Amino acid sequence: MNKCADAFTRDFVRSTGKNEVLAIQHETITSGDAVYDIINVETFLLAHVSLPVIDSNTLYRREGFILDRVLNADIYRLRLEGFELVCKFECTQQGQFHPDKHIMRFCERCDNWFHTTCMDTSHDEAPTLRRGSTSSQASIVNIPRDIQRMWDNLLLTPLQRGSPSYNWLLSFELLVLAIRSQELSSGCPPDIRSFIIDHLSLASHLNHSLDMFVQIFLNLRRPDTTYYHCPDCHSVL
Ligand SMILES: [Zn+2]
Ligand SMILES: [Zn+2]
């Protein structure tokens, strides 16, 4: 923390997760022999639906957040360009996102993530979904009723980043967005499990655990979900 050049950089570093990697930009030459190992680091865009499914050991970094070394000393300053905030509406966290502490919900209409603690809870039992041409595939392809019921259940999944049940930055945000887009374009797919596998967006180094993450997603307790009102447009999130 005493290596931060200013309060702005210090506030950001304080809000980073324990598995978060900070990108530092400065010129140096390192001998190839000194490279000990190559590790996998997943990237995501703070303000957009973009985070792959990761496990408790995966390292990650926010795209665009770069620390510059000041005057070649061991002091760093967060670059202003690329810096982003979330929850841009009366946020109690000053728009910061702490991956180990905060649970966020995404509003598709406002294109913004909000802290669950910055929203009022809703009595609704389903999130607001985008409307488009009605999904008609069910009537054309004749989806069995139990498959359709399972799909309708998946549509209750909120677009969430972080989970109170897991102590790491677990999010199925890309899959949930894909499910909603599928619903909008053609409705329930004939094979839901294949659809989930195709759209899970699992970090590539975790492919051996694919079945486990599919099961975690299917086991999310959807009927117990607490929904919130978007503080800006009042959609149910
Ligand atoms: Zn907030
Ligand atoms: Zn909204």
Layout of strands and helices, then pairs:
Elements lengths: L6 H8 L8 E3 L15 E4 L14 E4 L3 E4 L6 E3 L25 E4 L4 E4 L4 E3 L14 H6 L2 H10 L5 E2 L11 H13 L6 H8 L10 H9 L8 E3 L8
Parallel strand pairs: 1-4, 2-3
Antiparallel strand pairs: 4-5, 6-7, 6-9, 8-10
InterPro entries: Znf_FYVE_PHD, Znf_RING/FYVE/PHD
Explain what you see.
The protein has 237 residues and is α/β, with parallel strands linked by helices. It folds into 2 domains: 7-78, no CATH class; 127-226, no CATH class. It is built from 6 helices and 10 strands. The protein has helices at 7-14, 137-142, 145-154, 173-185, 192-199, 210-218, and strands at residues 23-25, 41-44, 59-62, 66-69, 76-78, 104-107, 112-115, 120-122, 160-161, 227-229. The protein has a 3-stranded mixed beta sheet with strand order 1-4-5. Strands 7-6-9 form a 3-stranded antiparallel beta sheet, with no helix packed on it. The chain is globular, with a radius of gyration of 20 Å. It binds zinc ion (2 copies). Residues 107, 109-110, 230, 232-233, 235 line the site of one zinc ion.
